[in-house]
Design goal:
By secondary structure, the protein is of the alpha+beta class. Helix content is 28%, strand content 36%.
């Protein structure tokens, strides 16, 4: 009898998830999937982070741009994890092989706030396949 209850509970959970995915927008489903990926790799979701903390974040890079700051090149990338966005800045770099829009990345560093934007400067990073983080 306990087995039948367990199977019924699993079926109810499956149906609830199926109905939720069918009634949610593509953007909402993508955001939930990205947040789950972050949790799976042991990263913190951006919405749970605070400036000044050293954190690990995971997600795809939405954009990558070169921004010269007072004569010093700076490579900027926007990381999105489904709960928020963080600008990743590598000072003194014009390009980093593999750092491109759509690429998955895991970064670890201290969060700062500059002009109302959440930024992580010169983090440790590891690149992931795009399919893993999107």
């Amino acid at each position: 009898m306990a087995n039948a209850v367990g199977v019924a509970g699993e079926h109810d959970g499956f149906m609830r998830r199926a109905v939720h995915r069918l009634s949610s927008s593509d953007a909402q489903i993508e955001a939930e999937d990205l947040q789950q990926i972050s949790r799976d790799v042991g990263a913190t979701t951006i919405c749970d982070c605070h400036c000044g903390e050293v954190v690990t974040l995971c997600g795809p890079l939405r954009s990558v741009t070169l921004r010269p700051a007072t004569g010093l090149p700076a490579l900027e990338a926007e990381l999105y994890d489904g709960s928020g966005r963080v600008t990743i800045v590598w000072l003194g770099r014009r390009r980093i092989a593999g750092v491109e829009p759509g690429r998955g990345i895991v970064v670890t560093g201290r969060l700062s706030e500059v002009d109302g934007r959440t930024i992580m400067f010169n983090p440790q990073y590891s690149l992931k396949p795009a399919a893993v983080a999107s």
